[in-house]
Write a structure and sequence with these properties.
Chain B: Keywords: Membrane, Transmembrane, Transmembrane helix. Chain B: One of its GO terms (molecular function) is NADH dehydrogenase (ubiquinone) activity. Chain B: This is NADH-quinone oxidoreductase subunit M. The structure holds 2 protein chains of 2 kinds. By secondary structure, chain A is mainly α. Helices cover 71% and strands 2% of the residues of chain A. A two-stranded antiparallel ribbon of chain A has the order 1-2. By secondary structure, chain B is mainly alpha-helical. Chain B has one domain. Chain B is globular and about 75 Å long. Classes of the chains: A mainly alpha, B mainly alpha. At the A-B interface, helix 16 and helix 17 of A face helix 4, helix 5, helix 6 and helix 7 of B.
Amino acid sequence: MSSLVQSVDWLAIAPPVVAAAVGLAILVADLFLPDARKPLLGWTAVAGLAASAALLLPLLDHDRSTFCLTGSPHACSYTADRFTLVVQFLVLGGALLTALLSVTSLKDERGNLPEGEFWFLLLSSAAGAALLPASRDLATLIVALEVASLPAFALVGLRHGDRRSSEAALKFFLSSVTATAVSLMGISFVYATTGTLYLTQVADRLPHVDGQFHTLAQTGVVLTLIGFAFKTAAVPFHFWVPDTYVGAPLPIAAYLSVVGKAVGFSGLILVTVVAFPSYADVWGPALAVLAALTMTVGNVGALRQQATRAYSAVRLLAWSSVGQAGYLLVPIAAAGYADDPQKAVGSTVAYALMYGAVNLGAFAVAALVGRTTSGNRLADYRGLYASNPLAALLLAFFLLCLAGLPPGVIGLFAKVTVFSTAVDAGLGWLAVVMAVNVAIALYYYLQWTALLFRAREGEPVKHRVPVPLTAALALTGVIGVVLSGAPQLVLRFTATGLF
Amino acid sequence: MIDINESVMQVLLAFVVVGPLLGAVAALLPAPPGLKGKSPEQAVLRHGVTVTGVILLAAIVLALGFDHDQASKMQATTDISWIPALHVRIHLGVDGISLPLLVLTALLTFLCALYSYFKPPAGPGPKAFVALVLLLESGTLATFAVLDLLLFFLAFETVLIPMYFLIARWGGEGRERAAWRFILYTVLGSVVMLLGLLLIGIKAGTFDMVALATDNGRSLSASVQVIAVLAIGIGLAVKTPMWPLHSWLPDAHTSAPTVGSVLLAGVLLKMGTYGFVRILLPVAPHGFHTFAPYLAAFAVVGIIYGSLACLALARQGAKGDLKRLIAYSSVGHMGFVLLGIATMTATGVNGALFANIAHGLITGLLFFLVGALKDRTGTTDLDTLAEDTGLALYGKAPRLGGLLAFGAVASLGLPGLAGFWGEMLALFGAFRPAADLDRGAYLTFMAIAAFGTLLTAAYMLAVVRRVCMGAVPEPGPHLDGVPQRPLLDDVRTYEFAAWTPLVALTVVAGLWPKALLGLTDPAVQQLLAGGTR
């Protein structure tokens, strides 16, 4: 008889574990550090995230699995394959850039934000987000989803005595919890019909579900998807986004727009492609409609932002992130129609990598501008080129990447891969909807870009750029430019299977 | 003509495409010591002239080194892998179809840079202006040089942002609106085009234009070809522009700065028609065949519509804008190009390619002239200019008047000038279209298009009458023996420098059409028979 004790491959689970451990250490250290030394915590967090991202390197050589069933049906709860590593890289890299932005914004908001708690929550959420793509059973998946989300609610509402901030957190919390509850119910239905939580086993057993349980299984599949659709901020689960982004500290808005989405779409990919492939005829069309609605609503929402309204820049980025979520969903929907679904979802991963880098870059510039103006209105960006040419050029580049027009070459090719999955899957109508959306989105992205180079009213304000912000800008800028020259670096995930 | 090593040719072509891009980046950097010039503005404008000059030189050497006996063969080819995941290869090459367009682009951009050096555009500093013009040049040259569908799309999109900013920042009245219309129309068109390109690439398994052209649509089913041609055709038709998708063009031309108008008309519109010839004809012949009669019909409507719009604008009291008038005349001229392509015959396509080049030269010249007129009088409104009797340019500025009259008669297709051959051949093509097209329909199209040439003559002559002729006011009394200054400055030296090449080439192409047709004909024959080698 084989042993019942599972052996643990510590190296495989190192990235999320290191992030969580550093988070705990910071929480404890916060108690003993004098106020003057608090900035040390921030740099420890940055170092911790960099270390956990670096720990992905030794995992590159081959796929590893751990927490496996010791019995004969081989199934594991944690797998570090290519998909996991790429998404973990995206999540940890995104968290690292968020941390760089936060160092400055914590310094600026001295006293408003409790430092120790902030870093602890950020790192815990990052650890949960890094765990999620590696999860290969439904229970771990839900746990990871909650570990990633719960600290995020707190982060949104962390600002002392800010009503808008707490209101945003509450909105975010209530809607998210409802979605998770629905998702849990779906999982219980799936468990009831298949008798297993392991994704691969669910995939094997779902087609053979008893006829009378068919409806139950189908309902379970749909309900499970809802929780993840919420995380990607797909319509109609998007309404919390603009208010939450505006209410949250800016780096946290950036974090939600990239890492929060990564959590959502990687969960969606896992449940659709790995667990429910036999129900492709259910989730394929559903996701296609969801994608079309999401991009349209997001882009139209962004279009309606008025430049002079308070926080219009953040609001625009929030709505645009909803629109971008729509593009991210297209390949997953296409996977429901494709012969090789794994190849199709590679486009989502590639698009997310591009989106993560340039969107965080755009938020970095927004953080820079937000330091000198209180409102972070679009109108505040007028004439940025005159006062800070490099930041203006970078923001222009990031926005054009998001719009998908040269010189943002990587944005263009990322869109091309998404289009090609839709065309390949025969989703012509979705491709046309997306084409119209690209044109709509261009309008507001380009309007913002044009604003940067307009003549400024009044004296230009010189921005002194703090070191962490410079680092974040440089990092995202270099990634964007390098990827534009060598798009293959991210697009290769579209050519090969990820699992 | 001269024997140049193939690898040198390769480098030359790659340089022609990448050079302006590097130049654009360099324009944004501060000038290095020794090249500072009199002021930063002067230095950057000079930088623009230098870079475009070098590119023109490289393009001319490329044209000289081109083996004219094998014009149907792709030459100076580079083929390296870039994005294996998408099967995108950096595949460059020129044949008899793309070479003339390449040289035309390099020439017009150089002339624009030269013109701007002496007459900096009104608006914000010239630094960004030069960078944008160079980026635009890179995009257009790349469009004509690449042989990969996705690279073609990339190049096609590259020109949008620079042209948007050129119009929106250095343009005249109504520039914001015009720039938006331009970019939103073309983006929507080109994204739809992308869908068609992807469809072809996915179904045929390659994005390589040479391979696809050699395949000649054999690996694409009929329905795929029809859908792809429809999608790609819409994108290209917006760019060309084809009636009824042309409505962005008059606004864009009216508001754009002189240099922007010249490049828009001279080069950017050609990207659309080039796409028809390079992609649709050889890659999806069956699909194109389905749509050819409709394309021809739209083209003919465009010819008549453009001419009638011009006639209306040229009328006294219509408050017609000269730039808008030339823009509408472009719709008509591009109608002839499309008609030629839609015949699917060697004669018609050759005519279309010829008319392409001729339109680039002549309309480029006309926009330069109208821009000069605007600098001198402050307006392009025909009624304000001509008042009741006519502007009398012949009397006030005889050389400018002469050039304008030259441009007008060249545009109306006077035999002996460049405008004649292209439209002539397009009409010939329509007289005897490809064997399986309905000849009766094409004969009707031909008749209507021929009537269009008459209308063109009518409005062009009306413009000449109102702008060049008229009563010269009595010279004022001499003050202290000094004769009064003439009312308008005549052509200046730098203007001569910028315009003479266009005039000379218009005459040369008119008198010696073989120089151009000899290049395009073998390539076109090859293309219609089944792809490029």
